[in-house]
Task: structure prediction
Amino acid sequence: MPEDDAARVGRYYDDVIFEAEVTRLRDQFPLELAATSRYIERYVPAGSTVAEVGVGGGLYSELLARRGCRLRLVDVSRKLLDSVRARLPEAAAHYASATNLPLEDASCDAVLMLGPLYHLTRVEDRLQAVSEATRVLKLGGLLLAAGINRFTYLRDLFREAAQLVLEPADFHAQYLRDGVLNPGVAPPIGHAHLTTRAEFHDLFAHQFEEIKLVAVESFAGPWQARFRKFPPGVAEAWLELIEQTAETPEAFGLTDHLLYIGRVP
Result:
């Protein structure tokens, strides 16, 4: 991502949606948090050296720290980076873009990109970020990367502000082709790229050996805020069902997030 684009996304987080991002996973997307945490615990060994590129509210950083991982935190938002570093002072922190990681070659056991790829609106930048992940990973190292289902924006617009389908008249035809959003049409996320299953798969195909590509929330995506109120036994039973269905074609049509897990061959 060119430096001006990185700065633009960073400023949007710092000045507009910082507070929302800090509370987002726990309050609005607890199922995304629980399901993604499951995959992290399963695939990232305790004690690993992990680059977390895009730290968000720091909940995954804290999970990794509890597992004894050595953290390299990278973000274009100074406020998010400072907030997480204040809670995890032993972690190394870098103000930088996913397209130009300030990390040594073959220095990491795992890379998490659970946000940057859906803020890179140009395909060249997304491919560059994937190449950077490949560069900093050791042989056999793991990438966990998230994308957002392109249809979630349309689903939420239909539910919350249906009349906006008329303004601007040609935007949605273009959006179906390229998946690009901006703060004028999607203020909760700002500058973003939302993907399809095929497009997300192809992004990694030439550099990684795929382990899994899953629909994180599966059928429960539109109602996941309810998950926060489930008692532990009920929550665990639903997580099991969601994971059992997460690789089916039907799940990819309903989910909010896609998660790719791949290995450097």
